Amino acid sequence: MTVEQKTGAGPDEHNELRETIVRHEWDQFQRTNNEGGRAACQGNWPVFHQMRLAQFLTWERPLLESYASDLDESDRVGRNLITEKYGRMMASTAPEEFARNIEPYIPRLRADRVDRQERVITQQVAWAADFRARYPRLGEAMRVLTTAEDTTNATSFETYLRGELGTYSDATFDLYEAMILERAAEDPQRNITEETLLNTVRLGGFESLAEAEAAQSAR
One short Pfam family name for this protein (predicted)? Predict the structure, then answer.
């Protein structure tokens, strides 16, 4: 079954690039060392593919190309963006270990970049909260929402997003920020979290969010 058939979308010339990006991320994920040994999710390609492709289906070609370039460049210089993403999350979930073993070895973000990221994160957390209010059963299956809810065993949507955005090059972040701000300005009801989750449930075989919500409620 093609991506178009699974998501209900029309033919998209960018899907080959999206698949290449997901595979590149997976390859870096396989090289990510996890404290305590290999994580179970590192062996679950179908779920990884579903979750990451659902996100990239909301991106247009320039952003896809820029992020693909980030992944290529990270290989060239010996960085692993997936390892780094999870490392950045530990600023909240394991701050002492982050300060000792991770922060000295990853690129430091400029103050203006951090400020811009936080504005984007605020918008996306608001979208996620709105989605959870309208689809509570699907919301329960998501990560906890805010950094304040982080524990050593649970990383929130907010913290995950902060970790991921911190790995983007300036060029990629500029495009990502523009996408979020444009969508928020043009149509306050256009919720990128909802779009991503709609892609997720369609890739999982559901026709709509309402159908997926009903299936969760029946469990």
Answer: DUF4125
